[in-house]
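Q: Hi! Curious about what Cupin domain-containing protein looks like structurally. Here's the sequence.
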Amino acid sequence: MKNDNTSGATSVEQSPISRVVLMDTALLKAKATSRVEARRISLAPGFAAGYHVHNGPVFGSILEGSVILQVEGEPESLLEPGDPFYEPEGVPVRFDATDDGATFLAFFLLEVGQEPKISMLAG
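A: Let's find out. The predicted structure is below.
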């Protein structure tokens, strides 16, 4: 706290940096990550990607618009700008744009020589 001697008032100094943990998620299984690929991905309004699986864990954050995320066995959730997400490796997930469409950043954790792959599931 800083004492302002001229008025007798006390003020709190603001830090120039704010750090807030948005997500702290354990991986389903340990992964020897040698690199991370970041992608900016856009989904058209109302685009329903349907269920799919990734060959590695994917972390991300919604930049614009919104999506419905559902990880198999969990309730669906609405993600909006600033919301983080995690798609576990090998677990079916649904990531569908709402009527607003969506743009998001996705970070793919990759092993040596691995490239990100997505497999679409029927239904």
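A: A fun detail: The domain at 31-120 is CATH 2.60.120.10 (Jelly Rolls).
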